[in-house]
Backbone:
């Protein structure tokens, strides 16, 4: 079955908006694990707008030996103040997977993937170090990308397809073209020997269609929609509903 990794960024946004420790990230992670999720995702950013470095460490201790731990981020974002950098955090906590994302500091959210023809050689030493740490490496890519042999050759094991355009098209009632682009991208990446992850704006409404179209989908990382739905359904119920869709 496709693994569901729950992204906890929005829980941290809510906590940070008030200060203090509530809502508690560890309790949220425990709730998701008890409901059956197979992984937890965090995306620490240099501006500390949601997940903080200490959150990364705390969750690592909580998750070890229980579920997969996926840390996302831009490996080229320089360390500053309390942010030690993505690779430094990976050295500390040795997550199951590191998803490399080319997001700029000022972006509200990740909205594009790597150009593998342009970026592969720059990524090579980073991917190599992460692999030496025991981390699986996934590269964030757009639907319609190519160059997946380059991703394989520098040591990446997976690509994560950016599904924002698919979600927008689905909401508009005409997802066929966007879904076709995702399917073609997945097939090319799989042909190159890479496994397929997906994420961004996937929801209970659109996930089933996406999952059915991509055989062998390894993992989905879902945060924004899942936490929004949890406001009405409850966190454990939302996780279980996603798991039912993935089955």
Residues:
């Amino acid at each position: 079955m496709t693994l569901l990794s729950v992204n906890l960024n929005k829980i941290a946004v809510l906590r940070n908006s008030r200060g203090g420790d509530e809502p508690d990230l560890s309790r949220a992670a425990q709730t998701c694990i008890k409901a059956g999720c197979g992984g937890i995702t965090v995306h620490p950013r240099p501006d500390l707008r949601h997940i903080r470095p200490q959150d990364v460490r705390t969750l690592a201790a909580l998750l070890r030996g229980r579920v997969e731990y996926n840390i996302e981020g831009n490996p080229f974002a320089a360390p500053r103040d309390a942010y030690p950098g993505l690779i430094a955090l990976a050295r500390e906590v040795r997550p199951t997977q590191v998803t490399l994302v080319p997001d700029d500091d000022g972006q509200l959210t990740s909205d594009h993937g790597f150009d593998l023809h342009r970026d592969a050689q720059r990524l090579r030493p980073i991917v190599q170090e992460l692999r030496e740490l025991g981390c699986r490496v996934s590269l964030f890519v757009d639907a319609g990308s190519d160059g997946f042999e380059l991703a394989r050759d520098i040591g990446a094991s997976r690509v994560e397809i950016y599904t924002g355009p698919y979600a927008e098209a689905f909401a508009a009632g005409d997802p066929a073209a966007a879904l076709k682009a995702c399917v073609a991208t997945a097939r090319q990446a799989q042909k190159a020997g890479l496994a397929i992850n997906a994420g961004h704006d996937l929801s209970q409404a659109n996930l089933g269609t996406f999952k059915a179209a991509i055989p062998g989908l390894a993992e989905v990382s879902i945060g924004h929609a899942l936490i929004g739905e949890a406001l009405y359904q409850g966190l454990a119920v939302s996780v279980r509903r996603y798991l039912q869709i993935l089955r």
User: Anything to note?
Assistant: DSSP finds eleven helices and eight strands in the chain. Residues 3-246 form a domain with the TIM Barrel fold (CATH 3.20.20.70). The first helix runs from residue 9 to 18.
